[in-house]
Amino acid sequence: MVWLVIGLGNPGPEYAATRHNVGQMVVDELAKRYKVKWSSHKSRNDVAAFKIGVGENAQSVIIAKSKSYMNETGGPAKALASFYKVEPDHIIALHDELDIAYSTIRSKLAGGDNGHNGLKSMTSAFGSADYFRVRLGIGRPMGSQDPADFVLKAFSVAEKKTLPEFIDRGCDVVESLITNGLEETQSRFNS
């Protein structure tokens, strides 16, 4: 069985370092961790493949990042899942989460989109919300800043100091979900 891990975000260098792209930062780090190169796929995604584990217990993993904007991410995700014959219960969406503190990570199966346009687009395309989510906390903006502007800004100087560890932990959560399941992953990482 293949796992599909989708890092949500917006394409292009102007968005690469923004809070909204933290999911793509995690899949980029997974590509480095497993020493795999990105290639373009006809589904309008960049993809890379690797295995976690060895022997008959090894899990095949496809990591992906859409070439579409966040609110159009569902179509490319669905096309990729169809191509690799991956059901929603083997899909992990990595996304920024305003409602949890910066660098906090929570994983779950299914649920609402909580106003997140990437999740809304995926749920609509799949006709189901029954996929895994790795919620990467970015916190809420201070004062009266519009959350829509906040997510499109780069991390603060203070946040950048711990960003590598946060991204690394995001990779650990993905690996744990695939190899150990949701319950064990939540007990280890949903602090």
UniProtKB/TrEMBL annotation:
Keywords of the record: Cytoplasm, Hydrolase, RNA-binding, tRNA-binding
Compartments it resides in: Cytoplasm
Positions of the catalytic residues: H20 (proton acceptor)
The keyword Hydrolase appears for this protein: yes
Domain of life: Bacteria
Stored Gene3D superfamilies: Peptidyl-tRNA hydrolase
Catalytic activity annotation: an N-acyl-L-alpha-aminoacyl-tRNA + H2O = an N-acyl-L-amino acid + a tRNA + H(+)
Site residues by UniProt (Stabilizes the basic form of H active site to accept a proton): D96
Residues that coordinate or bind tRNA: Y15, Y69, N71, N117
EC number: 3.1.1.29
Enzyme's top EC category: hydrolase
GO cellular component: cytoplasm
Family from the record: Belongs to the PTH family.
Subunit and partners: Monomer.
HAMAP family per UniProt: Pept_tRNA_hydro_bact
Protein name: Peptidyl-tRNA hydrolase
Underlying gene: pth
